[in-house]
Write a structure and sequence with these properties.
The protein is α+β, with helices and mostly antiparallel strands. It has one domain. It is 54% helix and 20% strand. The strands form two sheets. Strands 1-4 form a two-stranded antiparallel sheet. It has a two-stranded antiparallel sheet with strand order 2-3. Strand 2 and strand 3 form a beta hairpin. The radius of gyration is 29 Å and the shape is rod-shaped.
């Protein structure tokens, strides 16, 4: 008669607050992505105005229409030098700076509210013993 004994060990690790850290990371990444796209549109507007692009072209109409809404608070803040169809729109540069600071502040607020530092990893070990006769 032979007795065969075997045991099975299963270990599970759980990291507290992991989901919250992932949410914080993804939310801040979305903020920076949206800001980057928005800043690129404003920079494109600035360059098109600076080189005197045709404001009647469909691309310029759409770009100026979309970005014009966001530049409204900065309209007439500073004089806009122009020469021969070329415009140095300094208010666009100021808007880019202000919107960048706003995005940074929102990102920091999300981080402070939702981020939880890594805590100790909890580990659960389960042992099953089987006896065969």
């Amino acid at each position: 008669m032979s007795i065969n004994t075997s045991s099975e060990v299963q270990t599970t690790q759980r990291e507290p607050e992991r989901e919250r850290r992932i949410f914080t990371f993804k939310a801040t990444q979305v903020i920076w992505l949206l800001l980057s796209i928005f800043e690129a549109l404003l920079a494109l507007r600035f360059v098109l105005k600076l080189i005197g692009a045709n404001p009647a072209s469909p691309f310029a109409v759409v770009l100026y229409g979309f970005t014009g809404f966001f530049l409204y608070p900065f309209a007439n803040l500073i004089g806009t030098p122009a020469a021969g169809g070329m415009v140095l729109e300094i208010s666009t540069l100021i808007a880019m700076l202000v919107y960048g600071l706003i995005a940074w502040a929102v990102e920091r607020i999300i981080f402070v509210i939702f981020y939880r530092p890594r805590g100790p990893v909890t580990q659960t070990t389960t042992t099953d013993q089987h006896t065969h006769v």
